Amino acid sequence: MYPHQAERLTRLLDGDALDAVVATSPANILYITGFRSLNEAVFQTPQFAVFSRQGTALLVPAVDVASIVLDGIDVTHVGAFGGFLAQASEPLPPETKRVVDIMAARAPSPQDALVRALEALGVRGGAIGLDETRLAPAAWQRITARLAAYKVVPAADRLLTSRRVKAPWEIECLARALRIAEEALNAVIQMLAPGVTEREVVGVFNAEVARREAAPVPALIAMGGRTAIPLPWPTDRPLRRGDLVRMDVGCVFKGYHGTVARMAVLGEPSERQETAHRAVLAGLQAAVAAVKPGAEARRIHAVAVEAVRAAGVAGYERYHVGHAIGLEPYERPKLSAHIDTALDLGEVLRLETPYYDLGWAGFNVKDTVLVTTAGTQVLNVSARELVALD
Description:
By secondary structure, the chain is α+β, with helices and mostly antiparallel strands. The protein has helices at about 5-15, 25-35, 40-45, 65-70, 95-105, 110-120, 135-145, 155-160, 170-190, 200-210, 270-290, 295-310; strands spanning about 20-25, 50, 55-60, 75-80, 125-130, 150-155, 215, 220-225, 245-255, 255-265, 320-325, 330-335, 350, 355, 360-365, 365-370, 375-380, 385-390. Strand 2 (about 50) and strand 3 (about 55-60) form a beta hairpin.
């Protein structure tokens, strides 16, 4: 664990008089331990990470133990549960023996493994923050019943707050994810031509992301009237002269998300297309300019919406104009009219002012910014202008 994470999580414990915090979501577990479970990603199996002043613990299905040990995940205690079996050939190297020993000592249930981990960390009473993100009511009841010796309080909001301010290494990962997304998007723009389909374009983007050792997230690439659909799956609809192309894409690098949205048009844009794009871009630029430490989320929303209206889209309305981004694509704070959260130094925000005119077209341009002492540092390097394709 990096010092920044340890400091933020210790502040969480101190602020709420907790003896430990238990994470259940993949993002929170990654934040505490650095571990990402392929088993969880495919099967959504339960797992826990524990942070305490005495150390950290990782509790996983037995099938995950080899990944943790052999990949060198640095935690104080590893516990297992579940019924996975595997063979090991003699003589056993030290790492393999550790895997075998952890699996042999596995607990009969996730909640039993959690109790054992707390005891191993010296947390034998007091208050525990339990992340409810991945716990159905029945699972919450089973775990809290097993933790009867502790006072248990929900911790999802507390963990989200801890993750708001990013460490330098996190900012590097976010910037790299964004750069990969922008490089892959540039390759997409270069191949746009009459007859190319949405599905083909998404395929190119995904391949370019994978080539740069990141993982693509579902790409929103739409053409013509389909640009007005907020969340379109790609189809075999071909690009035609006069069509807009809305490209809202992203990827994950070392667990961190990067997203970008840009617009193109095949041929010369119409006056109406230019006006709408110019308005959306004006809103984004106003949001970027308003970001600074201490600025309230609702203030960013207000100036962005007003800028879109002033630039040519009268009556423009928008629920939010962005939010934080990190280990999850959608983090707090949300930049909405009803949220007065003040921005903090070191937060990374994804800003946008999308406009959807159903039956005609949709527009979006996104940038990612870092909140600095000087106000805002834009992490994007790609141009925001409407790209006119030959």
